[in-house]
């Protein structure tokens, strides 16, 4: 059984991650690839409870502070990885995740000034070696993203703790995501999220084909060929 691939989607508010995850998941199914979609903070029952504490603003209001919030994000991530992501990958399923470790780097590390050593340690513990195989960074002007996020929100939904912040903070996060992509060129691909939904989906599919599907197919073909030649040698002997 070939291990599944792990793809994460990152970016600021309102960049369209959810729509693109849905489209990629549909595309992968047409290719016969089984996949699951998940999100952070959350993804597992316990992590969803932590999500509520973080996004409702409760942690902030109770004076937990940025480092405490970073620890909560990491604790939720550790459970999500252990109980959902890793078992799925082991079963050969692909996992598409809406936000992951890069969000902590940008939101807690850059915006909230949590010490880099703490962010590094939390990341190591939380992901336990499970770095994504591919990360899409959906890049969009912060004002456009916030406008979309506001338009999408139902009247009954509250603005979350992170959406409430000042526009310059959102612009800085956009830059931080771009810098993170530059520092991790093997794993990260920046996608222009100001394009139409179909254009963005096309960029994503093409990248997934080139970076993950074709190499995996070539690897499988090589394994099959090696196995056949081993069988032939054994028969001849
Ligand atoms: P969500 O409603 O899922 O929004 P979005 O559609 O923007 O992903 O809210 C998740 C919020 O949590 C988002 O503002 C980013 C923030 N966040 C962090 O600050 N650190 C993290 O590690 C993660 C995963 C998310």
Beta-strand residue fraction: 5-15%
Which CATH architecture? 3-Layer(aba) Sandwich
Widest sheet, order of strands: 2-3-1-4-5
This entry's quaternary arrangement is: single chain
* Cα radius of gyration in angstroms: 20 Å
Helix content: 55-70%
Assign an overall shape. Answer: globular
Order of helices and strands: EHEHHHEHHEHHEH
CATH fold annotation: Rossmann fold
Largest sheet: 5 strands, parallel
The low-pLDDT segments are none
Provide the CATH superfamily. Answer: P-loop containing nucleotide triphosphate hydrolases
Overall pLDDT = 94
Number of helices: 9
* Main structural class: alpha/beta
Number of distinct beta strands: 5
Short key terms for the protein model shown above:
9 helices, 237 residues, five-stranded parallel beta sheet, single chain, binds thymidine-5'-diphosphate, Rossmann fold, 5 strands, alpha/beta
Q: How would you characterize this protein structure?
A:
The longest helix has 40 residues, at 197-236. Helix 1 packs parallel to helix 9 (197-236) and helix 4 (65-90) runs parallel beside helix 6. The mean pLDDT is 94. This protein has a single domain (6-236), classed as 3-Layer(aba) Sandwich (Rossmann fold), CATH 3.40.50. The chain has a five-stranded parallel sheet with strand order 2-3-1-4-5, sandwiched between helices. The chain has helices spanning 17-30, 45-55, 58-61, 65-90, 101-111, 116-127, 142-152, 167-183, 197-236; strands at 6-11, 35-39, 94-98, 134-139, 188-192. The chain is 62% helix and 11% strand. The chain is of the alpha/beta class and 237 residues long. Residues 13, 39-41, 55, 73, 98-99, 103-104, 107-108, 160, 162 line the site of thymidine-5'-diphosphate (TYD).
């Amino acid at each position: 059984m070939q291990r599944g691939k792990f793809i994460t989607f990152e970016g600021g508010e309102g960049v369209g991650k959810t729509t693109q995850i849905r489209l990629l998941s549909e595309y992968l199914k047409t290719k016969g690839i089984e996949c699951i979609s998940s999100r952070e903070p959350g993804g597992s029952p316990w992590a969803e409870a932590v999500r509520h504490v973080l996004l409702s603003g409760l942690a902030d209001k109770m004076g937990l502070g940025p480092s405490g919030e970073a620890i909560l994000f990491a604790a939720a991530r550790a459970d999500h990885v252990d109980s959902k992501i890793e078992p799925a990958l082991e079963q050969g399923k692909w996992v598409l995740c809406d936000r992951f470790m890069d969000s902590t780097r940008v939101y807690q590390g850059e915006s909230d000034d949590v010490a880099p050593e703490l962010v590094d340690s939390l990341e190591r513990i939380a992901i336990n070696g499970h770095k994504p195989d591919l990360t899409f960074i959906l890049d969009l002007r912060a004002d456009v993203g916030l406008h979309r996020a506001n338009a999408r929100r139902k009247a009954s939904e509250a603005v979350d703790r992170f959406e409430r912040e000042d526009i310059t903070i959102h612009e800085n996060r956009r830059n931080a995501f771009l810098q993170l992509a530059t520092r991790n060129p093997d794993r990260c691909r920046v996608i222009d999220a100001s394009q139409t939904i179909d254009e963005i989906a096309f960029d994503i599919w093409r990248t997934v084909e080139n970076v993950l599907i074709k190499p995996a197919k070539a690897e499988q073909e090589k394994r099959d060929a090696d196995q056949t030649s081993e069988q032939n040698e054994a028969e001849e002997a």
